[in-house]
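haha ok so turns out i had the wrong file open the whole time. this is the CORRECT one, sorry everyone. sequence first:
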Amino acid sequence: MKLKLAFISFAILLTTFLAGCEPLLVLDPKGPQAETTANVIWISIITMAVIVIVVISLLIFMIYKYRASKQGEDYEPPHIEGNPLVETIIVAIPVLIVIFLSIVSVKSTYEVETVPEGYENQEPLVIYAASSNWKWHFSYPEQDIETLNYVFIPTNRPVEFRLYSYGPITSFWIPQLAGQKYAMADMVTKINLVAETPGDYVGRNANFSGEGFAENTFTATALSNEEFDKWIDEIHSTAEPLTEEQFNKLLKPGHLGQMTFTGTHLDFAPAPEGEHAGHHHGDESEDETNTEHEDHSNH
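then structure:
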């Protein structure tokens, strides 16, 4: 009786505690990419819940049905051969579950890696997101502005973030808009998203990168197209230009608040892509040398 009362009290306490928690942001999507991720999570949760319920139910049934009984000392249990049907079921069901979850995972991975369905014909807004210890630098090459620790994006328009790092590997993550993607020092990775609902969304580095990792956060604000254009104009009329000297100071380890500049660091510190990529297998001088060598060989 005491054990039962303790269990009921614990269940009530746990329910009360969970009721006071904020909803999981990843399960409150505000864009198609995040919705795909949330759907996959729900499918996984439901699948695992069904498995757990079935397994526990079978366990209770087996324990009750085949519990030890008061038989005589000379009692011998009957000899039972294997049951092909049961053996087929216990092998086939896990295989089918794995196949089902694999199909869901592969399909959803391709969906979140591309421009969301319905937005393929729109020109994406390109934003370079570079991390440093422990800040996020957002560069708008088309708009010629740069922000620190916050990013504004228009609603109902595809946005392509190009990610890289000025330090250790980090992970770019806006739970309500898209999944995670690594930002590395020697290459550029890309993540596509669309914000369909105006609002402020929490973004962060989801990969441990040192003592300041916990506060390596930023705010993503989705605005209407008119408000976004107005914001761009306000920056060009009020913000100071970003210089190379100032940018180098911003790269030093530490935490800073939100800052805004005209111009971008891409002018003097380009992203590691194209001719500035970190993994070259030869340069122009080598190509010219190889071409000359081939010409001499032909003669």
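The first helix runs from residue 2 to 19.
again sry for the mixup
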